[in-house]
Amino acid sequence: MTDESPIIVALDFPNAKLTHAFLDRIRGRHCKLKVGLELFIAEGPGFVEQLTRQGHQVFLDLKLHDIPNTVASACKSAANLGAWMMTLHASGGNEMLQAAHAAMSEGDHVTKLIAVTVLTSLDQQQLHSIGMQSSAEECVIQLAKVALQAKMDGIVCSVHEAQAVRRRWGLQPMIVTPGIRLRDDNKDDQSRISTPQTANESGANYIVVGRPITQAKDPMYAMDQYLTHWASNDS
Fold this sequence. Notes:
Elements (H helix, E strand, L loop, with lengths): L6 E4 L5 H10 L6 E4 L1 H7 L1 H9 L4 E7 L3 H13 L4 E5 L4 H12 L6 E5 L7 H6 L6 H14 L4 E3 L2 H11 L4 E4 L18 H6 L4 E4 L1 H4 L4 H13 L4
Parallel strand pairs: 1-2, 1-8, 2-3, 3-4, 4-5, 5-6, 6-7, 7-8
Helix pairs in contact: 4-5, 7-8
């Protein structure tokens, strides 16, 4: 679905020192970098700004969910850090998402906004436990509808729902799929996982991969394995 590398490496490190040690090991390798809550809280906005100044495209994954004005202001701040893309929860609703879009449209901001639908750590039983009686796919479709009506650039969903999103909305929305593992990888705390090849075939633009790359003995080789499987035509 994209000519550039589809890999977004999740920097699941507790501090900048370990992050830089990892980046030194993949120096020159083209990929995008995801900064999530752990690293952002540990190192602060300045660390994101540092990464962007070094030429990295940073996916700021903070999953914003608050009142519209607060989220809109946070989006402006993230854009000022140079973030390539950032996440909001689609369940924050239309007004919150529209406020975020309006804030990004006011200036020369180029930060993409994507809405998180259903976390890949949630299986059907867990969805029911929090009051969501529909299937994961039905929940994703409904939340994607809210997000895309609010002019988000795309959504985050598992591979299992990506194909349904493509069938309904075509090629327009960007789709980012977490929970990506090779068949022999440990699934860690993910519930709805899939392979890079299936993600590609299902219409994903980007795949988020963390520990299988960041904790690998040879992270560049691990990244190459994911790229190979992404492009594979084998079953």
